């Protein structure tokens, strides 16, 4: 069962200091929050000096509060001419303020108001999980982890250079100062990582020392004689988990194969980090296959147990919207239509499951709520037969517009090679080479990302991808067929989906989901099935189309690539041959134990959720390449790891049908 997020209230003590009635404690010293941040957390960690000249610097904080530590650190970074190139700030918060609450508390910040305003503008809804916010053109990255520290700290994948150990007094909030927390910090600590906290409690120093830190007292702040500073210097050499170091790439050049949603997103994210990208696609431009249709809807998935699919869907939706807003602010709008999405139940059992999800999750209404059929009809001209879930942040967009915006943002960093088919790959030295049909080298780079859907299996046949192709057909109605009667001004989904009218008055609905066992040509039978889907969504409008001959309808046909559990494959590819050769030793292995191929990554099998997962998947791959904190919790990154099918084979033996673990053709 998911842990619900209960926001904090912007309450002030009699002294005018932000106060928490939950913990009967104030958020910072009476001597001043910003001054405390500068003395205790920056000064105690030797900042800004310790980040001088670094390519990357990572700070992990327990207790974001109203964000004063982050704002003070961001300001110090801006003012420092020797600052690191990229600053990551990762902070855990169990009870985040709302955007309005932050605005109230930040009103008196004076010179920090511009930074506080930028933070408020991007501030997320109080939803569990990680939320990645980007500032100063991506040079400052704030990753917020909303949830209990005991749950979130083990799920972070990061290598920390400094820790801000904040939170309410140990006597008021013991969970923030437990041995489990100290061990969790040690798990993330890079060599010589520093730590600072305002408390001088002896059990805190002893707990840090047991976890591998050398801790000592230092002059305190605001009437406190002492505080605690520490450095990670464990007596032991072997660590069960080694946090990622900042990557060192002498040649920051990558090859990306595939210029659809997945590949263009990866290209843009790598270019943002200073990489040169050679982009290959067999077609005459970006978004020509599955990403090529003129309109696609996006909304989150919810379930009572907040499953991996639901959490990945939520994270992907929120990240995509932030990424598209960033593109727009850079002058490259994607044409997002945030009209909202209504997902109606298909039957009474489905409605019961939807209501159970709302009750169990208790998410803010700005994210999802119940909408009755009456409200849908009155407010959105959606004459649906029953109510459903309303996603106010959902909507639709043309995928090709996203791809074009991302390539425009990448600019001169990308060398796009369209109408170029990659026939084979080879690895020599520290370079991946892509070859044409004649065996000629088209390009070489230390990093290669496969973003070419089902075609990836042809280039790396040794991988246990278990990909399958699913055909989808959409049906279009022109303005005359739609008619003058009301049509929904939002997206409606259920046993299919339909989109609002476009600027020409035409509309689109569908979609089929069937095995790809024939040519990609439109089928009158599938158009007839889509009319049936429309009848389930808008019975009245479907009745008006009873006389339409399906053979006269036109639409769009494409192929989705999916895995066995419909979760994508995102991340570094395993060395399958080496792993199978060591199968006995690796039978009890975890994903982190599997050998990996150097510099080879996948962004594949997005299925029907390319809009949802492309931006987040690209950020994940870029973060893995750079040794940065991941934008996803560890269990979610594992759930989409391309090595997960290999791990299953190692643990349980080959899948039925083939001795090497690959399924027979009819089992794919």
Automatic annotation (TrEMBL):
One of its GO terms (biological process) is tRNA wobble base modification. It is found in: Cytoplasm. InterPro entries: FAD-dep_OxRdtase, FAD/NAD-bd_sf, MnmC-like_methylTransf, SAM-dependent_MTases_sf, tRNA_MAMT_biosynth_bifunc_MnmC, tRNA_MNMC2, tRNA_S-uridine_synth_MnmC_C. Its cofactor is FAD. One of its GO terms (molecular function) is oxidoreductase activity, acting on the CH-NH group of donors. Its EC number is 2.1.1.61, 1.5.-.-. Its main location: cytoplasm. Residues 1-233 are annotated as: tRNA (mnm(5)s(2)U34)-methyltransferase. Residues 257-668 are annotated as: FAD-dependent cmnm(5)s(2)U34 oxidoreductase. Keywords: Cytoplasm, FAD, Flavoprotein, Methyltransferase, Multifunctional enzyme, Oxidoreductase, S-adenosyl-L-methionine, Transferase, tRNA processing. It catalyses: 5-aminomethyl-2-thiouridine(34) in tRNA + S-adenosyl-L-methionine = 5-methylaminomethyl-2-thiouridine(34) in tRNA + S-adenosyl-L-homocysteine + H(+). The keyword S-adenosyl-L-methionine applies. Residues 116-230 form the MnmC-like methyltransferase domain. GO terms for cellular component: cytoplasm. The keyword Isomerase does not apply. Residues 254-623 form the FAD dependent oxidoreductase domain. Catalyzes the last two steps in the biosynthesis of 5-methylaminomethyl-2-thiouridine (mnm(5)s(2)U) at the wobble position (U34) in tRNA. Catalyzes the FAD-dependent demodification of cmnm(5)s(2)U34 to nm(5)s(2)U34, followed by the transfer of a methyl group from S-adenosyl-L-methionine to nm(5)s(2)U34, to form mnm(5)s(2)U34. HAMAP family: MnmC. In the C-terminal section; belongs to the DAO family. In the N-terminal section; belongs to the methyltransferase superfamily. tRNA (mnm(5)s(2)U34)-methyltransferase family. This is tRNA 5-methylaminomethyl-2-thiouridine biosynthesis bifunctional protein MnmC. The gene is mnmC.
């Amino acid at each position: 069962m998911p842990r619900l997020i209960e926001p904090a209230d912007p309450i002030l003590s009699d002294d005018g200091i932000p106060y928490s009635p939950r913990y009967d404690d104030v958020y910072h010293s009476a001597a001043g929050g910003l001054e405390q941040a500068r003395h205790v957390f920056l000064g105690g960690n030797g900042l800004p000096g310790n980040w001088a000249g670094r390519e990357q610097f990572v700070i992990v904080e327990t207790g974001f509060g109203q964000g004063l530590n982050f704002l003070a650190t961001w300001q110090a970074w801006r003012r420092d001419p020797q600052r690191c190139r990229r600053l990551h700030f990762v902070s855990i918060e169990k009870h985040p303020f709302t955007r309005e609450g932050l605005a109230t508390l930040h009103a008196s910040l004076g010179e920090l108001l511009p930074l506080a305003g930028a933070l408020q503008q991007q501030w997320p809804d109080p939803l569990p999980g990680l939320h990645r916010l980007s500032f100063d053109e991506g040079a400052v990255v704030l990753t917020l982890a909303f949830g209990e520290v005991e749950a979130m700290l083990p799920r972070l994948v990061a290598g920390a250079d400094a820790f801000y150990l904040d939170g309410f007094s140990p006597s008021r909030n013991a969970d923030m100062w437990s041995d489990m927390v100290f061990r969790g910090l040690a798990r993330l600590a890079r060599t010589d990582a520093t730590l600072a906290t305002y408390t001088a409690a002896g059990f805190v120093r002893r707990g840090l020392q047991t976890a591998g830190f050398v801790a000592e007292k230092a002059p305190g702040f605001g009437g406190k004689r002492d505080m605690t500073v520490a450095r990670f210097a464990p007596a032991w050499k072997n660590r069960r988990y080694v946090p990622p170091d900042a990557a060192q790439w002498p040649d920051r050049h990558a090859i990306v194969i595939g210029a659809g949603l997945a590949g263009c997103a990866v290209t843009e994210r790598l270019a943002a980090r200073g990489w040169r990208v050679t982009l290959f696609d067999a077609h005459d431009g970006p978004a020509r296959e599955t990403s090529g249709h003129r309109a696609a809807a996006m909304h989150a998935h919810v379930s009572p147990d907040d499953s991996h699919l639901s959490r990945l869907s939520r994270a992907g939706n929120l990240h995509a919207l932030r990424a598209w807003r960033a593109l727009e602010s850079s002058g490259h709008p994607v044409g997002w239509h945030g009209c909202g999405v209504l997902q109606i139940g298909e039957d009474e059992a489905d409605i019961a499951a939807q209501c159970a999800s709302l009750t169990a999750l208790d998410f803010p209404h700005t994210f999802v709520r119940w909408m009755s059929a009456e409200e849908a009809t009155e407010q959105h001209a959606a004459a649906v037969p029953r109510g459903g879930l309303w996603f106010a942040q959902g909507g639709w967009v043309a995928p090709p517009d996203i791809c074009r915006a991302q390539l425009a943002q990448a600019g001169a960093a990308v060398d796009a090679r369209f109408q170029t088919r990659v026939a084979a790959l080879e690895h020599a030295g520290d370079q991946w080479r892509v070859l044409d049909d004649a065996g000629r080298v088209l390009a070489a780079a230390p990093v290669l990302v496969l973003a070419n859907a089902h075609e990836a299996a042809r280039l790396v046949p040794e991988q246990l991808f278990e990909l399958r192709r699913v055909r989808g057909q959409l049906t279009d109605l022109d303005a005359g067929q739609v008619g003058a009667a009301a049509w929904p001004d939002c997206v409606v989904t259920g046993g299919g989906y339909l989109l609002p009218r476009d600027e020409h008055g035409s509309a689109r609905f569908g979609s089929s989901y069937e095995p790809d066992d024939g040519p990609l040509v439109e089928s009158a039978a599938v158009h007839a099935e889509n009319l049936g889907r429309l009848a389930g969504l808008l019975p009245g409008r479907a009745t008006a189309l009873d006389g339409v001959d399906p053979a006269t309808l036109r639409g769009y046909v494409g192929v989705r690539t999916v895995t066995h559990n419909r979760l994508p494959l995102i991340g570094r590819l395993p060395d399958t041959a080496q792993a199978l050769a060591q199968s006995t030793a690796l039978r009890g292995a975890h994903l982190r134990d599997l050998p990996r191929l150097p510099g080879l990554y996948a962004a594949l099998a997005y299925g029907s959720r390319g809009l949802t997962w492309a931006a987040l998947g690209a950020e994940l791959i870029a973060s893995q390449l750079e040794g940065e904190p991941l934008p996803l919790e560890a269990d979610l990154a594992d759930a989409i790891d391309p090595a997960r099918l290999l791990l299953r084979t190692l643990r349980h033996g080959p899948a039925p049908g083939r001795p090497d673990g690959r399924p027979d053709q009819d089992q794919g």
